[in-house]
Specification:
Helix content is 15%, strand content 30%. By secondary structure, it is of the alpha+beta class.
Length: 276
C-alpha cells in the first residue's frame, strides 16, 4: 500500500500542475475575448466653474443669453472660450461683445469676455437623420483670459477619435448645483467624421445647452461640443461636433472683430461665415 501511495503522489502532482497551466492559459486567452477596461481619470471637481453662460451684446442694444460655453487650452499658452455657432444670427445686427458669465453667481458676474473672434465663426451645420447630420462647422471660439483658480480650463482630445463604448462625462448645466453643473455619465455609441453620437445613462431636460462639452473618462479631455440631441426609446442622445474640428479653428491665426463676422457688418455688407 505504501508503494501505491508513493507512486500516486507524482501523478496527482503532475495533474495539479497540468490543471494550473490549463487554467492560466484559459485565463490568458479568455481576456482577449472580453472588451478591455480603459483607465478612468478623475472627473472635474465642483470647486471651480466648468461651464459659462454666453451673453451676446448686439450693436442695436439687444442683449441675449444663448447656449453654453467652456474654456480650453490653446497653442502658445493661450486660452479660448468655446461654444456653438448655430444660434448666431448671421442676418441680424452686428455682434459687438461676448461676456462669459458665471452660472452660480447671484448677479451677472463675468468670468471672461471678448470683442474679437478666434478665426471665422462656423455655420449652423446640418441636423437630421444620422445619414445627413454634419456638425463640423458648428463652433464659435473667442480668445480670452481667465483665472484658472476659478474656472476649469480643459484640453481638447488630440486622438484621431474616441472608441465605441468609451465612457464619458457630460456636465449638465445646473446653476443651482455646486460649480454650476452635475455630471451625467454615458458612452460613445457612434463615430463619424461629421459627428460623434453619445448615449447618456440618464435622461435630461435640455435647457439652452448648445456648446456644452463632453469629456472622455479615458483621458479627461473634450471629445466635442453639443450641437444637437434626440430622444429615442426613453434615452437621451447627444450629437457632437468632434474635437478635431475645434482644433482646426484654433489653427486659424486671424482675430477678426466680432461685428465684422457675426451679423451684418457696420458698412451694411453681409457678414462672412465659415464654410457650410
Amino acid at each position: 500500500m505504501k508503494r501505491m501511495v508513493e507512486a500516486d503522489v507524482p501523478i496527482f502532482a503532475f495533474a495539479r500542475r497540468f490543471i494550473s497551466i490549463a487554467l492560466i492559459a484559459v485565463a490568458a486567452f479568455g481576456c482577449d475575448e472580453k472588451p478591455s477596461v480603459a483607465p478612468r481619470v478623475a472627473p472635474p471637481g465642483r470647486e471651480k466653474q466648468l461651464l459659462a453662460q454666453p451673453q451676446l451684446d448686439f450693436d442695436d442694444g439687444k442683449i441675449t443669453l444663448q447656449g453654453t460655453a467652456f474654456f480650453v487650452h490653446a497653442p502658445d499658452g493661450a486660452t479660448a472660450a468655446v461654444t456653438a455657432s448655430h444660434y448666431l444670427d448671421q442676418s441680424g445686427p452686428p455682434l459687438v461683445h461676448v461676456w462669459l458669465l458665471s452660472l452660480t453667481a447671484s448677479e451677472p458676474t463675468p468670468l471672461a469676455d471678448s470683442d474679437v473672434c478666434w478665426g471665422q465663426p462656423g455655420g449652423k451645420g446640418i441636423r437630421g437623420a444620422n445619414a445627413v447630420t454634419d456638425l463640423r462647422t458648428d463652433r464659435f471660439l473667442l480668445p480670452v483670459s481667465v483665472d484658472e483658480r476659478m474656472v476649469h480650463v480643459l484640453d481638447l482630445d488630440d486622438r484621431p477619435g474616441p472608441t465605441v463604448g468609451e465612457r464619458i462625462w457630460f456636465p449638465d448645466k445646473q446653476p443651482s448645483e455646486s460649480g454650476g453643473f452635475r455630471l451625467i455619465e454615458g458612452a460613445v455609441v457612434q463615430i463619424e467624421s461629421r459627428f460623434v453620437r453619445i448615449r447618456l445613462d440618464n435622461t435630461i431636460k435640455p435647457q439652452s445647452q448648445s456648446g456644452s462639452p463632453v469629456i472622455s473618462q479615458v483621458n479627461g479631455k473634450v471629445l466635442g461640443l453639443w450641437g444637437g440631441f434626440s430622444e429615442e426609446e426613453g434615452a437621451t442622445f447627444l450629437f457632437l461636433n468632434p474635437a478635431r474640428e475645434i482644433q482646426k479653428c484654433q489653427d486659424d491665426p486671424s482675430r477678426p472683430t466680432l461685428s465684422n463676422v457675426v451679423g451684418k457688418s457696420q458698412d451694411g455688407e453681409k457678414a462672412v461665415s465659415g464654410p457650410n
